[in-house]
């Protein structure tokens, strides 16, 4: 039996102590293993068997429930055993070791889900949604992950692929009859079908882009001169005292990270050490980390002291920001100036390079809702809807590639049938990569290696 056919086993519950722990086994013909482990008892499919789990000397390792799922009616499409015992780490390791003694091998990360994919129980997009559901950081993300797991995203992709195949058949059927190809394609409304495909692909892509925002969230950095109120703003957004606030410049000597949720979107906020020249070695390390955070950010909140405006220190910071980084200018401390909260974004030409200005008070909370809405606007979030599904960067890349191929196909002239057929084939291949109908083995390895062991 090859290594890929061997039964695999792993602890399926999270590390640490718990009331219940689960060891999962998947493979072919697991009933002999089950009988040996339970002292001769044979579990019935989908019926819980209360039994002792025995070691090699016949002594009980633990007492619990054995569940048997016969192939192909299981998560992986193979025989599956789930051993539910007491959730102590030592007990779980002893039970797992016994399963390995009986012929199973330790599962690799994501191998249970990979076997489900290889056995056609899930397509690749559904398999990835298993990991997305586990990693979901908001209720909205969890709901959309379940939609993808149930096949909502895959259904859209399969429909696109089916229509691409139909259009390819029409186009390629003309290659053997070059004299009649133009009339045949016109009669079949090939151009109209192609335009309809482009419109549907655009709709799917828009939903996927929104789903990617929901899955990945956004990284926001607070930048500005020392003692301009960055830590106060972080605390106000987080609703907690997560950063130390003093009047002493350089109080924040390292990046401070906090996650909040805005309309279901996870937002990772990073309070940076004040970007300035300093001889303090510790503060220099914090500034280096701040510069790295800025490079990885989606949006920068540029805090400017209303009393000083853009002084030399602030200008130096602005000059160090990546030119493509989206910026929102923050005028804090409006409570001291007697101003009211406001958001201005129409026709602005701010010296900071931002196209949105927020006036707020981190101390009183005035204007925070305006800032939260501005952040969602910057990343193009349109709100949760039933048509959304979680998507990954590779999904977006594949959809953009398919979109480009369909655009090239639309540009083909009436006598470029071979070229038209090739662009349609490439568009189909790009869409099929999403569900795994066409994919490279190394891509599968990367995808499933990021799962947790036991899943």
Furnish the topology, listing elements before pairings.
Layout: E1 8-11, E2 18-27, H1 31-38, E3 49-54, E4 60-69, E5 79-87, H2 89-101, E6 105-106, H3 111-118, H4 124-135, H5 139-149, H6 152-173, H7 181-187, H8 190-216, E7 218-224, H9 230-238, E8 256-262, E9 265-271, H10 281-295, E10 299-304, H11 312-320, E11 326-331, H12 334-337, E12 342-344, E13 357-359, H13 368-378, H14 393-411, H15 417-435, H16 441-449
Parallel strand pairs: 1-6, 7-9, 7-10, 10-11, 11-13
Antiparallel strand pairs: 1-2, 2-5, 3-4, 4-5, 8-9, 12-13
Keywords: Cytoplasm, GTP-binding, Hydrolase, Magnesium, Metal-binding, Nucleotide-binding, Potassium, tRNA processing
Protein name: tRNA modification GTPase MnmE
EC number: 3.6.-.-
Q: Could you characterize the architecture of this molecule?
A:
The protein has 455 residues and is of the alpha/beta class. The chain folds into 3 domains: 8-122, 2-Layer Sandwich (Gyrase A, domain 2), CATH 3.30.1360; 126-213 and 388-436, tRNA modification GTPase MnmE domain 2 (Four Helix Bundle (Hemerythrin (Met), subunit A)), CATH 1.20.120; 218-378, Rossmann fold (3-Layer(aba) Sandwich). It has 16 helices and 13 strands. Strands 8-9-7-10-11-13-12 form a 7-stranded mixed β-sheet, with helices on both faces. Strands 3-4-5-2-1-6 form a 6-stranded mixed β-sheet, covered by helices on one side. Helix 11 (312-320) links the parallel strand 10 and strand 11 (326-331). Helix 4 (124-135) packs antiparallel against helix 5 (139-149). The longest helix has 27 residues, at 190-216. The two termini are 23 Å apart.
